[in-house]
Amino acid sequence: MKPYDAIVIGGGHNGLVCAAYLARAGRRVLVLERRERVGGAAFSEQVFPGFTFTVYSYVVSLLRPEIIRDLELPRHGLHVLPLESTLTPLANGDHLAQWSDHDQNRRALARHSPRDAEAYDEFGRTLHQMARAVKPLLGMVPPDPASLAPGDLAGLARLARHFRGMGRGVFHALHKLLTMSAADYLDEWFESEALKGTKSASGIIGTLLGPRSPGTAYVLLHHYMGELDGVFRAWGFAKGGNGSVSAAIAAAARALGAEIRTGTPVARVLVESGRATGVALESGEEIRAGRVVSSADPRRTFLELVGEAHLPGELVEAVRRFRFRGASAKVNLALDALPDFTCLPGPGAHLRGAISISPSVEYLERAYDQAKYGEFSRRPYMDIVIPSMIDPSMAPPGKHVASIFAQYAPYRLNGGWTDARREALGDAVIDTLAEYAPNLKSIILHRQVVTPADIERDVGLSEGSIFQGELSLQQLFSVRPAPGWSKYRTPVEGLYMCGAGTHPGGGVMGAPGRLAALTMLGARR
Amino acid sequence: MSGATVVIGADADALVAAHYLARAGRRALVVDEREAPDAPALEPGWIPPRVVRDLALERHGLVVHAPDPWAAAPLPDGGRLELARDLARSAASTARASRRAAHRRPQFCGRMARLARVLELLYAGPPPDPLARAPGELARMAGLAWRVRRLGRRAIEDLLRVLPMPAADLLDDWFESDELKGLLGLGGVMHLAQGPRSGGTAFALLHGHVGSPPGVFRPPRSNLVEVLARLPGIEVRRGARVARITVRARRAAGIVLATGEEIAADCVVSGIDPRRTLLELVDPAWLDPELVRAVRNVRARGVVARATLLLDREPGFSALTLAPSLDDLERAHDDAKYGRVPQRPALEAHAVDEAADAAGRRRVDVHVQYAPHALAEGAWDSARRAALGDQVVALLAAHLPGGAAAVVERSVRTPLDLEAARGWPQGQMHHAELALDQALWMRPVPALAQYRTPIRALYLGGPATHPGGGIAGAAGANAAREIIRDARRGRL
Ligand SMILES: Cc1cc2nc3c(=O)[nH]c(=O)nc-3n(C[C@H](O)[C@H](O)[C@H](O)COP(=O)(O)OP(=O)(O)OC[C@H]3O[C@@H](n4cnc5c(N)ncnc54)[C@H](O)[C@@H]3O)c2cc1C
To answer: Which of A8, A16, A34, A219 to mutate to test ligand 1, by most ligand atoms within 8 A of the CB atom?
Structure first.
């Protein structure tokens, strides 16, 4: 049989995207996934009979439209349903609602602050502009600023032209966004605590930083990026949960000729005289290929699968310094009925959107304070969706599922994560949420609590970092995952990287997988 | 060249600007609302050698105090971690704190020194303007880029990675010793309303390193302000409160004092903060609303109190830092961010060399961080000021010979006091916090970064402009050079 052109380690959505693009260019590709099913952190599972959880990631917004087009994902089952509101319940029984409908949104904001309602459109326009300015960077392979190679110099020149071409206003606004804290940035725009709290929450997702720490404003933008291709905060919910995003990409890859083997953990990348020649499985089997591309995170790829012996000391040092610090947890609930929020009793449109426990910036900052010193937040930030309201097939008739993303739950918990601490975290989440939805405890049929330690063990994400490494300025673009190695290549010839640990980073976006594949195709001799 | 310039404020940058303008042949009048210079004998800040040379400061009595060891911190075993200015000499002491630290420090110091060198290059002139189209500016940027490139791959990579980092992450990458990290970490948050785990504090650490030898992460202290004030060539009028900057036909035409006295000038340079300058002294109607908004949003949060102690004996140190670990610093900041005086503020004490009086008593200046400008409950008053003094003495007592009894007199200045006495907005010494979003071409806001304002002949030249506080006189010198350039080109 013809040998494989490429082996993709890991069948997370990025590995699958990479495989699909390689297959589409006629390469013979094999994907090796450690777990029994593909998807990585974009994974749905019937954890309790009849109840499907979108176990880890739960909303889609960043998925690149060119990938949806190129791989014809809708034809392979991708169906994204819009989430049209964000509800922020407040302790005093009031609430803040944000709606995708412009006028409805304006009225809702004006109730809290006419000034904020006024500023909101301008804020939206500014972020939209910023997202437009950053978007081309998401689609480009980051050049190496220290290199004198013609390709890098051309890349740098292109970058310089891009920045210089965006105009003063945009350039300076972008500088601010990259270097400010979400809290300070929002203070320049708004006065309503609930609005600032909820907006700044996008800035802390996946990082062990508080909303007052510089650098968080960028993460806010990262999460705004999806807005471009749709309407307001075009977060959507994939029918069937995020596992169906992976399933659609896997189907596309298979249709293009890629082979996918699950339940097949890779033990090692085979390196012969500085060149990757294939992989050794944990079973002992060796499979050869012209190229190997890893979608596992940088720490796993370099320190476990390749091994220090094959790597320059500086890269090893850089990978050791790369910050993971998982801080996010998930609580997935099977519910007998709908939660009833004090601020908006009964069922309603608000339950089809996101619900955010982020009453103020200070609330989030205090949640962070505890995590800084190794405790989980007693009153965490939460982002909740009720998938069964959007896609009834997720739960038996009349029943529901809820997906609760909670922060902060630091990977390095004092004393380490144990079963008891996992349940204590689950209790803290439920207790806090029950303050806003008092019927909650009585309607829970089952619950699944996922800590960063669980994420690390189940999905393989080091320290449970949801983005395969923090999205902080010092870990982005030309320095992601390591200075000098931002171009999907590695010091081992024939070995590439394609996971969220590479540019442009985490989220169910697919961009790293696509850019890695394009790099590999371009680099073919 | 002739013409009269009025310079508002008699702090280091403003005075340097005045002297440069005087040397270029302009008449320079410095007005300051304070009756007498308030500065303590020694203020921290590295003075660029060019300023020292141009103004012949050494000949006029400049005393630069660079203590050796430049820093010391108590160790849990009772000894002290002492950092000598000479790296090799401090190796033994560092080894007491941590053998690994002693081993890694030279490499760390070398790499940081190279980064500080890049900042020094950037600080020597007006901020680069990445969007400039003028050939001269493009050439300057190309020159800078070339010089940075020549420093090699490592330095470029460090530059990208280190500047946006939290100081805590940077230090954790290199060291294990809590005392060493606490001491260096305080350098990353000096005068900043941030804890060491906040992004961008590594930049602040480097900012404080500029101009110092490798391994020395605190600027020297000097009597610069005093020297500049008595240096001939300019006129300094004290007790003169500026009420208004006169603007005629979009052009600054002088100032009006609170007494009603008008002073005409064909150029006005403000060394006080941009908010007061543009929103109080100038009629904001002259300004674009966008600019007004940007100036209102300049962050200047005071977080520092100062204490002065008089001791009846030798203090037993030249410099002493009490910031036992990064966590201690961070916790102190946690308190302050919610408007509370921390239980254990970080302290940095400097002993003044000469005896303070005939009785031979010794003075110790103490930097106290964090002391929030606005308290969550109540406001600063004499009781709270005294309580802070008690805290400072109690914290220092264990490290003074004779304990608290050695302190015979003390005075404390809260951020509110510093605001009143020094004109620091909210008690913020740098007038605008030194954060990455308020540095270089963003300082204090992009539209004012080149020292010019939308009002012709009105310039900013205080620490809120590039390169900012801590680099004494550089902003003033840069501003003066821009003014002289404008004058030459007939654009003043
Ligand atoms: C709790 C949580 C919530 C999130 N919420 C959202 C969200 O709502 N929206 C969003 O856009 N993003 C979200 N994210 C982030 C997003 O899911 C991830 O960034 C993204 O899925 C990463 O994809 P990836 O393909 O790069 O890596 P992964 O999904 O980590 O895939 C890597 C794959 O490699 C496999 N693997 C590892 N080692 C080996 C080996 N030795 N041999 C074989 N296979 C191996 C793993 O099993 C895994 O399947 C969330 C993440 C988490 C954890």
So the answer is: A34
Cα gap B273→B8, rounded to integer Å? 10
Residue with tokens 């003033």: B476
What's the rounded Cα separation, in Å, for the pair B291 and B184?
A: 37
A1 token code pair = 């049989």
Ligand 1 atom 32: residue of nearest CA: A12
Given this model, what pLDDT does residue A231 score?
44
Q: What is the pLDDT of residue B39?
A: 58
* Three-state SS at B41: coil
Distance CA A260, CA A16 (A): 9
B198 touches chain A (CB under 8 A): yes
Q: What stretches of B70-187 adopt beta strand conformation (E)?
A: 71-74, 80-83
User: Could you tell me if A30 and A289 are in contact, meaning their C-beta atoms sit under 8 angstroms apart?
Assistant: yes
Residue given tokens 């000598």 in the structure block: B84
Residue for token pair 């051309």: A154
In the structure encoding, which two tokens stand for residue B168, read together?
């805590």
Q: Report whether B335 contacts B301 (CB < 8 A).
A: no
What count of other Cβ atoms lies within 10 Å of the Cβ of residue B83? Answer: 28
Q: Residue B195 and residue B345: Cα distance in Å, rounded?
A: 12
Report the separation in Å between the CA atom of A505 and the middle of ligand 1, taken as the mean of its atom positions: 11
Domain ranges of chain A: 4-44+61-79+238-323+466-522
Question: A302-317, pLDDT tens digit by residue?
Answer: 999 999 999 999 999 9
A300 CB within 6 A, ligand 1: yes
Convert B446-468 into a string of H (helix), E (strand) and C (coil): HHHCCCECCCECEEECCCCCCCC
- pLDDT tens digit sequence for A219-237: 888 777 765 454 434 578 9
Cα atoms found within 13 Å of the Cα of residue A56, Cβ hemisphere only: 30
Tokens of A148: 């004198």
- Residue burial B27-60, b: 16+ Cβ < 10 Å; e: rest: bbbbbbbbeebbbbbbbbbbbbeebbebbebeee
For residue B34, give every residue at least 6 positions away whose Cβ sits within 8 Å of its Cβ, in sequence order, or none: B10, B238, B239, B421, B423
Tokens of A103: 């006028």
CA distance A495 to A278: 9
Give me ligand 1 centre to Cα A13, in Å: 7
Identify which of A376, A365, A264 has the alpha carbon closest to the alpha carbon of residue A7: A264
Cα A194 from Cα A217, distance rounded (Å): 17
| Tokens 């880890």 sit on residue | A56
pLDDT, tens digit, 9 for 90 and up, residues B203-255:
999 999 999 999 999 999 999 999 999 999 999 999 999 999 999 999 999 99
Q: How confident is the model at residue B453 (pLDDT cuts 50, 70, 90)?
A: very high
pLDDT of residue B2: 60
Catalogue the E-assigned strands of A217-326. 236-238, 259-261, 266-272, 275-281, 286-294
CB A241 within 8 A of CB A44: yes
Q: Are strands A4-9 and A286-294 parallel, antiparallel or unpaired?
A: parallel
Residues 6+ apart with CB under 8 A from B484: B1, B20, B21, B24
By DSSP bridging, strand A354-357 and strand A85-89 are parallel
What CATH number has the domain spanning A4-44+61-79+238-323+466-522?
Answer: 3.50.50.60
The domain defined by B4-63+222-299+433-488 folds into FAD/NAD(P)-binding domain (3.50.50)
The answer to whether B467 and B122 have CB atoms below 8 angstroms apart is yes
Angle at A222 between CA A152 and CA A12, to 5 degrees: 80
| pLDDT at residue A525, rounded to an integer | 34
B222 touches chain A (CB under 8 A): no
Nearest to residue A469, comparing CAs of A416, A429, A512?
Answer: A512
CB nearest to B131's CB, from A171, A323, A484: A171
Tell me the pLDDT band of B9, cut-offs 50, 70 and 90. very high
pTM of the prediction? 0.96
**pLDDT, position A489:** 96
